[in-house]
Known about the structure:
The chain has 516 residues and is an alpha/beta fold. It is built from 18 helices and 20 strands. The protein has helices at 16-27, 66-74, 108-118, 124-145, 154-157, 160-163, 166-173, 181-188, 192-199, 218-226, 236-248, 290-298, 300-307, 342-352, 396-414, 420-423, 432-439, 484-503, and strands at residues 8-12, 31-36, 47-50, 53-56, 62-63, 85-88, 92-95, 101-104, 228-231, 252-255, 261-265, 268-274, 277-280, 283-286, 316-324, 334-337, 361-364, 379-387, 424-430, 471-473. A 7-stranded mixed sheet has the order 8-7-16-17-18-15-19. Strands 10-2-1-14-20 form a 5-stranded parallel sheet, covered by helices on one side.
Amino acid sequence: MNMRVGSSVAVVGAGLGGLAAACVSAARGHTVTLYDKNDWLGGKAAVLHEGGFRFDMGPTILTVPKVLERIFQEAGRNIHDYLDLRRLDPQWRCFFDDNTHLDLMADVPTMAADMERFAPNTGAGEGYKKFLEISEHLHDVSNKFFFWKPVEDLFDTINIRANMNPGTLRDVLSLRMGSSVAGTIRSKVKDARLAQMLDHFVQYVGSSPYGAPAVLCAIAHMQTAEGVWYPMGGTRAVAEALTKLASELGATLRPGDEVTGLAIEKGTVKGVKTAAGITPFDAVISNMDSVRTYRELVGGDVGKAYEKKSFEPACSGVVLYLGLNKRYEHLNHHDFVFSRDPEEEFDYIYRKGEPAPDPTAYLAAPSSTDPSVAPEGGEALYVLVHTPYLRPHHDWSKMFPAYRQVILDKLKRTGNMPDLEERIVVERHLTPQDIHERYKVLNGAIYGLASHGKFMGAFKPGNRSRQVRGLYLAGGAAHPGPGMPMVMMSGWIAADALDSDARQGGAAGSEVRQSA
């Protein structure tokens, strides 16, 4: 393989993972061309302007800003010259089905005391502190074994010869393999409402807390320790900052130019196929869904073999963008309006594969932080309800009107917004079918692949392809998984793996395994 420092690199897909990969590759001295089928860069971090309102269309919660800082540091730049980040506290406001509500505060003693008052005589405060101790430990172990490294399975994580010492064995055992997120939470926090609130850290990865491995409890510590942030201008500003950095570093940006396949010879990438024909490249980083990358871009026997792997898409969702002529003062910037019964809700979404009859809704009401999102006194309300990924019998053009009403009724009832429909002056929406078509994701899955399986559910397809030399993967359906910081970290990892292979003269080729 002819890779070297200064290799030509194609990045396929300009989501946050692809943008991060383009920035890091360009900062390391490679010649980068970034392709996207859509006419904007940023993937799901798109923006909707309608009737004087501005909506972030995709992710709205930014955590772990250190990941972004590291990407900008690659180029010797300071993130704060590109983004105005504001820390939010309370982090979320929670509305429960019994009409109680509680704020999630960053300060642990404050939150523990609030929980004690909310659920007296249940030991909730101490339980929460114990849960966060577990979470912090799992975060430390994740930093050691999973983060900033191109990982695909347990054997990548633990180099048997180098790591077989008592400390490592203790760390691996402490990953609580065989336990779920929900089980870990409920072993410490007995009040059902508080457990439901803590379950929702794993909603960043679109997975059921009953099926997700306990290691994902680490997300709780990441958020409490490092904060929830809002970039002024919305999360779209993150995509714009990365785009600006990529172009300053000399990357060629090609929105509206779809890559339809890869040119592969003898198991090695030689270039990309577009409407213009084949353009040669030394290496390719795909920010397209990993399963669809193998199926549609690689194709052939490798694509077929990869399809047989048992990857399950994560959940999808219905998003409502509601321009309100009058804001609700009782809403926080981020809110959860919780379902009556999480077991029923997750059973519908993840086992039955049908929309939940009484769903949880996540709301972003950003006007209190950023008045530019709406005309004065109004609100650009973003509503996300998780749904199953697309099944063959789902026809969302028929299902949407009735489910829209289910969502609005839930907000009126549990979110204390009885006159919601009278306040709506602008309305747009996305269904799972829209998400599937718009973003080249698997069956409309917002978060890539589900993190289910108590033992191996944390593992995603690796960032360095084992099937094709010179192909690297980034995005929510690659390691380390979905959520804004993880997706940007995946772009850094893919670019770092490519760069280290180039510096070793393409030595990664020797690691490619023939079995898919």
